[in-house]
């Protein structure tokens, strides 16, 4: 399969808004892939690399060769398998001279690529390939291409932890092959995700009675135990066992032979309140001096689900049965605090208590919900307060794919009351309709002060209301803080830049959450 074929499909998918049309385009392309090509094709068309990270960013890509002309000899003949091998080598190159070697490999690759292929590769390598081919759409496309039920594809992807591998099985072996993929202790599965509800009352309307649990701002951990062997995986299915001895010790202390558990690990202060999220993230992200880090930033584990117990898979049991089994094997202080109720007042009081203790909110869980991995449905609904700030746009980056020609990624800044300057906090491209993208592109171009190939810098006049989930420390931005999961709510043309929120207000939100 040619890389150009994937690039062309990616462009077509990005330019299509209808879900069914996206699925049809993706399915048509996947049918042409060979058994070994389809896994790479699924990864690429999902906007990700099979290698995850290969140490390449915009700075590396900036000065690579110009594209070859479409009518030149050999143009458009790059094969997907060859590109994958080259990127494998780029990612595995290390040691002295590795940076020069990576640049050499990428230079040779880009020198053979057309403009469309180069654009596709740049966006793929920098995580900017956003075309609406998320897991749900891609799973349906795989099912359509293989002519199998989508539920069979999703189940195999859940158990195998990889939609790309499920695609290969579906296209090669059909439903019989997909049904052979099951839960294996030691192999991570895709975690179940929570949808959202505006408030506790709205969540209870969808499921009552229901179980409410604290919404914890930590690291999702999936714990596998087989005998004395314990493995700990992240939400993205990375193995971090060696970094979390507390989790390993908890798992080994359970009165079981084998188990797969779902939970959250986070750093708590002596008073039991959660420490800033980045402390948990830095602890779980570091491979060095684990013993010393454990002393400095000990982790607490809260378990909230049980997927396998002593040879028995529990995925298809209702939530309340899995919860009862979990409670029978785990110590009370190792369980996420939980309330089962259909009383809105009791539920509100439980949620308020969670917030008062410094947690994000609550997750409302249907007592009958099955464990549906990798999908956001109404079985679990998270409820947490949303913060908003009025910030100033100081620059914007040109979009890609369906957003080509529009200024998309906004650079957000707060006002410094001392100097009157604007302090950048981060970026967002979320929450924008096509109409808003068109409007802001025209408006920002009118405010332009300078530009390069990627970014337009503007006079700090336009105020935008931004919703976000929290504030965390950051050495990347001059204010020392950044916003988590920022998204645009609306523009505030009724406000002047000097009316925007201050950097002090942003820091105060972060400190209040600590």
For the report, how would you describe the main beta sheet? Answer: 7 strands, antiparallel
Alpha plus pi helix count = 18
Name of the CATH first level of the largest domain: Alpha Beta
Global mean pLDDT: 89
User: What's the CATH architecture name of the largest domain?
Assistant: 2-Layer Sandwich
Low-confidence stretches: none
Fraction of residues in H or I helices? 25-40%
Output the CATH topology of the largest domain.
D-amino Acid Aminotransferase, Chain A, domain 1
- Give the count of structural domains: 3
Percentage beta strand: 15-25%
Structural class label = alpha+beta
Cα-based radius of gyration, to the nearest Å: 24 Å
How far apart the termini lie comes to: 51 Å
Shape: globular
> Tally of extended strands?
19
Describe the protein.
It is a single chain. With 514 residues, the chain is an alpha+beta fold. It has helices at 3-14, 19-31, 38-45, 58-61, 80-92, 98-111, 115-125, 135-146, 150-160, 163-179, 200-206, 245-253, 277-285, 290-296, 319-329, 344-356, 434-446, 503-512; strands at residues 193-196, 210-215, 219-226, 229-233, 258-267, 299-309, 312-313, 338-341, 361-366, 376-383, 387-398, 407-415, 422-428, 448-451, 455-458, 463-468, 470-473, 481-484, 487-491. The strands form four sheets. Strands 11, 12, 13, 14, 15, 16 and 19 form a seven-stranded antiparallel sheet that branches. Helix 1 (3-14) packs antiparallel against helix 2 and helix 8 (135-146) packs across helix 9 (150-160). The longest helix has 17 residues, at 163-179. The model has no long low-confidence stretch (mean pLDDT 89).
């Amino acid at each position: 399969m040619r890389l150009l074929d994937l690039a062309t499909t990616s462009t077509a998918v990005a330019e299509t808004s209808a879900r069914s049309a996206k699925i049809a385009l993706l399915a048509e392309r996947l049918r042409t892939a060979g058994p070994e090509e389809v896994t790479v094709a699924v990864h690429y068309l999902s906007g990700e690399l099979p290698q995850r990270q290969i140490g390449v960013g915009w700075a590396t890509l900036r000065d690579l060769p110009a594209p070859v002309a479409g009518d030149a000899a050999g143009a458009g003949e790059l094969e997907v398998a060859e590109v994958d091998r080259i990127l494998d080598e780029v990612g595995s190159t290390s040691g002295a001279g590795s940076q020069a070697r990576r640049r050499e490999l990428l230079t040779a690759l880009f020198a053979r690529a057309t403009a469309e292929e180069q654009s596709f590769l740049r966006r793929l390598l920098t995580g900017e390939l956003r075309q609406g081919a998320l897991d749900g759409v891609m799973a349906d496309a795989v099912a359509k291409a293989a002519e199998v039920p989508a539920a069979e594809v999703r189940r195999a992807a859940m158990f195998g932890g990889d939609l790309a591998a499920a695609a290969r099985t579906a296209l090669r072996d059909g439903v019989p092959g997909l049904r052979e993929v099951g839960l294996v202790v030691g192999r991570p599965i895709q975690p179940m995700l929570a949808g959202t509800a505006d408030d506790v009352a709205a969540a209870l309307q969808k499921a009552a009675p229901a179980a409410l649990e604290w919404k914890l701002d930590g690291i999702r951990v999936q714990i596998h135990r087989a005998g004395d062997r314990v493995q700990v995986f992240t939400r993205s299915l990375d193995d971090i066992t060696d970094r979390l001895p507390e989790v390993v010790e908890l798992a080994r202390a359970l009165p079981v032979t084998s188990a797969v558990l779902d939970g959250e690990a986070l750093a708590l202060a002596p008073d039991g309140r959660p420490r800033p999220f980045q402390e948990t993230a830095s602890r779980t992200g570091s491979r060095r001096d684990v013993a010393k880090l454990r002393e400095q930033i000990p982790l607490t584990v809260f378990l909230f689900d049980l997927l396998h117990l002593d040879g028995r898979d529990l995925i298809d049991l209702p939530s309340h049965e899995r919860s009862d089994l979990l409670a029978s094997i785990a110590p009370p202080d190792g369980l996420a605090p939980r309330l089962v109720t259909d009383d809105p007042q009791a539920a509100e009081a439980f949620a308020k208590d969670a917030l008062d203790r410094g947690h994000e909110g609550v997750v409302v869980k249907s007592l009958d919900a099955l464990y549906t991995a990798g999908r956001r449905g109404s079985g679990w609904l998270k409820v947490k307060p949303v913060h908003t700030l009025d910030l100033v746009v100081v620059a914007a980056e040109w979009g890609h794919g369906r957003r080509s020609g529009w200024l998309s990624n906004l650079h957000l800044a707060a006002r410094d009351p001392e100097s009157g300057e604007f302090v950048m906090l981060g970026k967002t491209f979320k929450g924008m309709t096509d109409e808003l993208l068109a409007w802001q592109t025209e408006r920002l171009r009118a405010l332009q002060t300078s530009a390069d190939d990627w970014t337009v810098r503007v006079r700090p006049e336009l105020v935008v209301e931004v919703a976000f989930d929290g504030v965390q420390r950051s050495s990347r931005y001059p204010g020392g803080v950044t916003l988590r999961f920022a998204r645009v709510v609306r523009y505030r043309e009724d406000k002047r830049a000097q009316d925007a929120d201050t950097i002090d207000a942003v820091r105060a939100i972060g400190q209040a959450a600590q």
